[in-house]
Amino acid sequence: MGVVPFPKAAGQVGFDRAELTRILDLYGRMVAAGHWRDYAMDMGRDAAIFSAFRRAAERPEFRIEKRPALRNRQGMWALIGEGGAVLKRGHELGPVLAPVERRLMKLVEE
Predict the structure, then answer these.
(1) Rounded to whole angstroms, how far apart are CA atoms 76 and 46?
(2) Is the overall model pTM greater than 0.90, yes or no?
(3) Hey, is 48 helix, strand or coil?
(4) What is the DSSP string of 52-83?
(5) Per-residue pLDDT of the chain (110 residues; tens, 9 = 90+)
(6) InterPro entries attached here (predicted)?
(7) Other beta carbons less than 10 A from residue 67's beta carbon
(8) Cα-flanking dihedrals φ and ψ of residue 87, to 5°?
(9) Local structure of residue 105 (DSSP, 8 states)
(10) Residue ranges of domains in the chain
(11) Which has the closest alpha carbon to 77: 90, 61, 58?
């Protein structure tokens, strides 16, 4: 038996392999730096959301949202902070993750 793809409901938004690899790579580096401890993924009709937590029983420190309906407006990617404020929005995943990458560099330097 070969690899069976994860079933995706009709009309459900998800992350493709390259996007998920990029997000999980950043998550792994934040875990290695001792900053994040847990994550959650939610894939619904309007958005796919990756939430990163410092501890399991709290609000996520960051949410990375993919909303294809906003592709032609301000961009389908958004980085949302702990308080719910949009920290960065754009058409490409890399620049949207830049604030977290900068935070990681500060954590590694300490």
Answers:
(1) 11
(2) no
(3) strand
(4) EESSTTS--SEEEEE-GGGTTTT-SEEEEETT
(5) 566 666 656 678 889 999 999 999 999 999 998 888 999 999 989 999 999 998 766 788 999 999 998 888 888 999 999 888 999 999 999 999 998 888 877 766 66
(6) DUF2794
(7) 18
(8) -90, -30
(9) H
(10) 15-107
(11) 90
